[in-house]
């Protein structure tokens, strides 16, 4: 209910009493109470999460209108209101802190109130006239926070993956593969335990990273399949109370069309409401990706270390001055940023795991935390990978001479001699080389262990660093 005192304010009423609300705002009394109750972080809901809720409200309005559960004009006004906001209007009206009432009731009512008040304007009514369009009785018909919010997390996750993370990974893979081709003929020293190892191709380093990201992309696709199974229609406790018999299947069908993703109703609505396992699964896949991204970013920093006192096998593109006091210094800032974001994603994953096990009986009341952490993780990972690709990977150049010098000077070259002179002889040669500074080739010849022709063949760096192809016979082994 609402009363108007003057042009600047209206009075809205809920079960707890009356409150004065600015006439200009589209949210209502329950949102106002949440603003007052939760002045916690100043962090407002993510756009993608808001979009997910709006798309759900659009689908439910369409279906409830088709099923004559709400009047057709109200259904159409709600749909128009959602389309306007999805197009960019009224974004400042979603104001509830991400740390809020358990299960997400405050955020949910924020959406319901904004849509109701905008629908009222579309119908030529004043904001707050909830007898005409109610946030609860019309916008929220047949719904509950308890089935809408877990569905919004699913939809928000799918939107963030398709718009942000998957395209970024695809671009990173393509860029790494291009560098793999560009650097394929450059031989460098391998390193294990940060010590000299047998020679490898610089291009294969980049191809390995591309393969790692490809495998993570596949894991995330697999995990995100869980997000396509919706408990929408479960209403308050998973029983479907106050919903039309055809609503559950129809609303999932409409949602599938709206986000162009194949969705399906959950086989047991109560289970879909209670378990946060799908979000834990996706978050775990994100954490797994983040861990390897940290490794890759650290590799880039090591290989670029220097310029005079480090490895300097590659040059990362300088994007900004690196010191406030040391002139001419450039730092691997894109790789450093990547690690920081990945650490944050790992932290979010831990919080999601704790929140997911904190449900009781018919509901998990920690969903606002899960919603923010999961969708934010997806988006910052996607933005990070995109920035790393564009401002770092694509501009990497190789120091071929430095790479070759390290490869030729590595004591690990002695490994290639094992099958020709035996492990113990090879170890003795390596020890003498380290102690005297003589080359492996010189010591082997002096000891009469091999002749010049044999050494030339065995110590061929190009051949030694080439990855052996998988033989046809190996592929046929079960």
UniProtKB/TrEMBL annotation:
The keyword Lyase applies. Its EC number is 4.3.1.1. Keywords: Lyase. Residues 19-347 form the Fumarate lyase N-terminal domain. GO terms for biological process: aspartate metabolic process; tricarboxylic acid cycle. One of its GO terms (cellular component) is cytosol. GO terms for molecular function: aspartate ammonia-lyase activity. It is an enzyme of class 4 (lyase). It holds the Pfam family Lyase_1. It catalyses: L-aspartate = fumarate + NH4(+). NCBIfam families: PRK12273.1 (NF008909). This is aspartate ammonia-lyase. It comes from Nostoc edaphicum CCNP1411.
């Amino acid at each position: 209910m609402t009363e108007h005192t003057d042009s600047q304010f209206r009075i809205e009423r809920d079960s707890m009493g009356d409150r004065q609300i600015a006439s200009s705002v589209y949210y209502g009394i329950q949102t106002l109470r949440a603003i007052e109750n939760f002045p916690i972080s100043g962090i407002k809901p993510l756009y993608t999460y808001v979009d997910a809720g709006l798309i759900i409200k659009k689908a439910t309005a369409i279906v409830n209108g088709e099923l004559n559960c709400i009047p057709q004009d109200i259904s159409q006004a709600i749909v128009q209101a959602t389309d306007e906001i999805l197009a960019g209007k009224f974004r400042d009206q979603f104001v509830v802190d991400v740390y809020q009432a358990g299960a997400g009731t405050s955020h949910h009512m924020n959406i319901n109130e904004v849509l109701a008040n905008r629908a009222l304007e579309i119908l030529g009514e004043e904001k707050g006239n909830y007898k005409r369009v109610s946030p609860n009785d019309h916008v929220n018909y047949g719904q509950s926070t308890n089935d809408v919010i877990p569905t919004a997390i699913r939809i928000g996750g799918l939107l963030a993956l398709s718009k942000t993370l998957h395209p970024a990974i695809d671009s990173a893979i393509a860029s790494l593969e291009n560098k793999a081709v560009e650097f394929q003929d450059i031989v460098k020293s391998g390193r294990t335990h940060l010590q000299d190892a047998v020679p490898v191709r610089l291009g294969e380093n980049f191809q390995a990273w591309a393969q790692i990201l490809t495998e993570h992309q596949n894991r995330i696709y697999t995990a995100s399949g869980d997000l396509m199974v919706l408990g929408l229609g479960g209403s308050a406790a998973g029983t479907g109370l106050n919903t039309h018999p055809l609503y559950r299947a129809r609303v999932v069908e409409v949602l599938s069309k709206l986000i162009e993703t194949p969705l399906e109703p959950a086989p047991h609505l109560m289970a879909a409401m209670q378990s946060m396992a799908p979000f834990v699964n996706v978050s775990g896949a994100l954490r797994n990706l983040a861990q390897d991204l940290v490794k890759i970013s650290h590799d880039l920093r090591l290989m670029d270390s220097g310029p005079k006192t480090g490895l300097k096998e590659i040059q990362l593109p300088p994007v900004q001055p690196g010191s406030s006091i040391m002139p001419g210094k450039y730092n691997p800032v894109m790789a450093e940023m990547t690690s920081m974001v990945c650490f944050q994603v790992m932290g979010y994953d831990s919080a999601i795991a704790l929140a997911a096990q904190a449900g009781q009986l018919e509901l998990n009341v920690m969903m606002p935390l899960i919603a923010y952490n999961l969708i934010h993780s997806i988006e910052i990972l996607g933005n990070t990978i995109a920035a790393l690709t564009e401002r770092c990977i694509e501009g990497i150049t190789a120091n071929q001479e430095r790479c070759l010098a390290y490869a030729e000077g590595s004591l690990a070259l002695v490994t290639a001699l094992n099958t020709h002179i035996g492990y113990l002889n090879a170890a003795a040669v390596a020890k003498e080389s380290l102690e005297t500074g003589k080359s492996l080739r010189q010591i082997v010849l002096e000891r009469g262990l091999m002749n010049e022709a044999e050494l030339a063949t065995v110590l061929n760096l190009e051949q030694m660093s080439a990855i052996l192809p998988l033989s046809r016979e190996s592929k046929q082994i079960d």
